Amino acid sequence: MNRSLSDTGGAALVVSQFTLAADTSRGNRPGFSTAAPPSEGAPAYEAFADAMAKLGIPTARGKFGADMKVSLVNDGPVTIWIDTAV
Questions:
Q1: What is the reported pLDDT for 60?
Q2: Which InterPro entries match (predicted)?
Q3: Extents of the domains making up the chain
């Protein structure tokens, strides 16, 4: 966790994930009304992936808004929950 992708020679797989904006404060079903609409989210997603690539990091992309099956191996276990006031 002390080294960047550039430091380690790593690569990035950039996928969109609107579920990160889930509101679980009430009820049994999360709400996603705080997620950006696709007209805002898609350009932000592309800009992020472009910025990674411009840094020289090998960058693969998913398809924005698609249902994707992603497999990975984490070097961990580490889970960091970042909770901020919205």
A1: 92
A2: Daa-tRNA_deacyls_DTD, DTD-like_sf
A3: 1-86
Catalytic residue, candidates 19, 24, 79, 84: 19
Kindly report the pTM of this predicted structure: 0.71
Distance (Å, whole) CA 59 – CA 16: 14
DSSP 21-85: G-B-SSSSS-B-TTSPPHHHHHHHHHHHHHHHHHTT--EEE--TT---------SS---------
Query: Where does 1-86 sit in CATH, by number?
Result: 3.50.80.10
What pLDDT sits at residue 22? 79
Contact 1, 79 (CB under 8 A): no
Residues facing 14 on adjacent strands:
61
Is 24 labeled as catalytic in the residue annotation?
no
